[in-house]
Specification:
There is one protein chain. With about 280 residues, this protein is α/β, with parallel strands linked by helices. The longest helix is centred in the C-terminal third of the chain and has 20 residues. It is built from eleven helices and eight strands. The chain has an eight-stranded parallel β-sheet, sandwiched between helices. InterPro entries: ICL/PEPM, Pyrv/PenolPyrv_kinase-like_dom, Pyrv_kinase-like_dom_sf. This is Isocitrate lyase/phosphoenolpyruvate mutase family protein. One of its GO terms (molecular function) is lyase activity. Keywords: Lyase.
Length: about 280
């Protein structure tokens, strides 16, 4: 990156970091391509976060790291170019067999202009999660890559104990807090705990984690205001918006093919309005 490009990324990184601590919560309706990012920005979102599942589905791959890293980062670069707000990228487990590989991935993500990353602790082996020390090293490598680039990247460390129902339910909170503490010590700025929106659990997580708590919400979860009162600093919906959009495509196709009518597509962004979103003069 040129000096001017680096400075622009640094400024966006600082803005994104502040959004987690300015009285929030930071609410992120996740995007999966440039168009969804512009629509979400137009709705008033102060930042954009990509969803690994939505990105993968839109590019013809299952969620995970089957999608080539080059393809993922090219998509991230398009999203960054399409919006004026900070962009955080879901990098799944970091696309690296070892910490050095994660560091290289993060360096490339910074070159694409992203100012935040999600890195999950799900593992490729027989165990559902990586050992705590191993994941801490991967997060430390991400932090070091950002420091080397001079960018205050927001590293959101995802803890999948609840999402994957790891271990006895009675010990899950303690195990999550243990992982969170190690990840923050390794350089994570925030901790993302998908898989629970139980208000009592959220309150205990927020109290026990020395960093902003991020949650994954959706249908059936308490409203954002209640999650915020329980201590959540950041709330996203993952692939929920993408999945709903594809469900609409399915309903519209079924209606058109079965009855020849168009009710499912009556409520849409007008052609001119959509085109205007991409006139970046």
């Amino acid at each position: 990156m040129t000096n001017a490009e680096t400075q622009r990324v640094v400024e966006r990184a600082r803005r994104f970091r502040e959004l987690h601590t300015d009285g929030g919560p930071l609410v992120l309706p996740n995007a999966w391509d440039a168009a969804s990012a512009r629509v979400i920005e137009r709705a008033g979102a102060p930042a954009i976060a990509t969803t690994s599942s939505g990105v993968a589905w839109g590019l013809g791959a299952p969620d995970g790291e089957d999608l080539p890293l080059d393809t993922l980062l090219a998509l991230c670069e398009r999203v960054v170019a399409a919006v004026d707000v900070p962009v955080s990228a879901d990098l799944v487990t970091g696309y690296g067999e070892d910490p050095a590989g994660v560091g290289r991935t993060v360096a490339r993500a910074l070159d694409a202009g992203v100012v935040g990353v999600n890195l999950e602790d799900s593992g490729p082996g027989p165990e559902p999660l990586r050992p705590v020390a191993e994941q801490a090293e991967r997060l430390a490598a991400a932090r070091a890559a950002a420091d080397d680039a001079g960018v205050p990247l927001y590293v959101n460390a995802r803890v999948d104990t609840y999402l994957r129902a790891v271990g006895p339910a009675a010990g899950r909170l303690e195990a999550t807090l243990e992982r969170a503490a190690a990840y923050v010590a390794a350089g994570a700025d925030g901790v993302f705990v998908p898989g629970t929106c139980d208000l009592e659990t959220v309150a205990a997580l927020a109290k026990g984690i020395d960093a902003p708590l991020a949650l994954l919400a959706g249908p059936g979860a308490p409203p954002v205001a209640e999650l915020a009162r329980a201590g959540a600093a950041r709330i996203s919906v993952g692939g929920g918006v993408a999945a709903a959009a594809y469900a609409l495509a399915g309903r519209a196709a079924s209606e058109l093919l079965a009855s020849g009518t168009y009710g499912a597509i009556e409520d849409q962004i007008g052609y001119g309005t959509f085109n205007e979103l991409f006139h970046r003069g």
